[in-house]
Amino acid sequence: MRHLMSPLDFSVEELDTLLSLAQDIEAHPEKYAHACAGKKLATLFYEPSTRTRLSHEAAMLNLGGSIMGFSTADSSSATKGESVSDTIRTVSCYADICAMRHPKEGAPMVACEHSRIPVINAGDGGHQHPTQTLTDLLTIKNLKGRLDNMTIGLCGDLKFGRTVHSLIHALVRYSGIKFVLISPEELRLPDYMRLDVLDKKNVPYKEVVRLEDALPELDILYMTRVQKERFFNEEDYVRMKDFYILDRKKMKSAPQDMQVLHPLPRVNEIAVEVDEDPRAAYFKQVQYGVYVRMALILTLLDIHVD
Ligand code: NCD
């Protein structure tokens, strides 16, 4: 049985197969409409979510399966003190696969150790968010035609942003990838990512504070929200929250074929006026997130459609 805890759980070849499956699903949705008939997905969300929970649910419904779950910790027995391991033992009796989001790093890992069904990590604290990474990879592949030989700007909260951490882990496996890490000093990419991932793999990167300085050389700009819920005090958050605002004026200095991605939700970091720019890819990214999660569910359940 397979789980998805980190994007590294799939080899580069397996990722390639998964992304091709997602592309086939997009092209021929009808072929897959009943692939999961009789199967159930449980979504166990101990932290707020819009896209991640609903896209997993949409994915299972599009495959002809059914869904169940909870969307807040306080509507589950977690409030009565139930452990993650007891909850997953229980859910294993009801569902065929589950997606779990939890504020504690490693909680989905604890779950998979006690689970009889595949567990998908739908975000664990400031640690990882592998299904967002699958979404990001499919978006880049669809829009740029490749995953290698690219300069990627990661902008915003690189300290707490789990989507950034997972995306870096995934992209360093492709050749010719360079990163520009754009953040205020306080929200820099943590040492365990810089030293243990980028330096160890000799991946070229530079760190800059000003977005304007990075824009002209980017193929992809990956914007992120300042992760309010991970700050220890409100004052620091308020000081940081509007540090970056991508607007129409800044977009003028970006290459014509650069693509702007954002895992969403957006707060202020991308002005709404940018949505009309053909380079704004974040809502396409939302759509790709459904296809890639359909491909993921089929893969983890080992269901093949000819
Ligand atoms: C992200 C997350 O939850 O980490 N959202 C998402 O799943 N698309 C990003 C965020 O909350 O800022």
What is this structure's SSE topology?
Layout: H1 12-27, E1 40-45, H2 51-62, E2 66-70, H3 84-91, E3 97-102, H4 107-113, E4 119-124, H5 130-144, E5 150-155, H6 162-171, E6 177-182, H7 191-199, E7 205-208, H8 211-214, E8 220-223, H9 234-240, H10 248-251, E9 259-261, H11 282-300
Parallel strand pairs: 1-2, 1-3, 3-4, 5-6, 5-8, 6-7, 8-9
Helix pairs in contact: 1-5, 1-11, 2-11, 3-4, 5-6, 5-11
Task: Describe, in plain words, how this protein is organized in 3D.
The chain is of the alpha/beta class. Helices cover 36% and strands 15% of the residues. The chain contains 11 helices and 9 strands. A 5-stranded parallel sheet has the order 7-6-5-8-9. Strands 2-1-3-4 form a 4-stranded parallel sheet, with helices on both faces. Strand 3 (97-102), helix 4 and strand 4 form a beta-alpha-beta unit. Helix 2 crosses helix 11, helix 5 (130-144) crosses helix 6 (162-171) and helix 5 crosses helix 11. The chain is globular and about 55 Å long. The two termini are 22 Å apart. The mean pLDDT is 97. Bound molecules: N-carbamoyl-L-aspartate. N-carbamoyl-L-aspartate binds at residues 51-52, 123, 129, 132, 162-163, 224-225, 263-265. N-carbamoyl-L-aspartate is lined by residues 51-52, 123, 129, 132, 162-163, 224-225, 263-265.
Characterize this entry briefly.
This protein has 306 residues and is an alpha/beta fold. Helix content is 36%, strand content 15%. The model has no long low-confidence stretch (mean pLDDT 97).
For this entry, give a set of tags.
single chain; 306 residues; alpha/beta; five-stranded parallel beta sheet; four-stranded parallel beta sheet; 36% helix; binds N-carbamoyl-L-aspartate
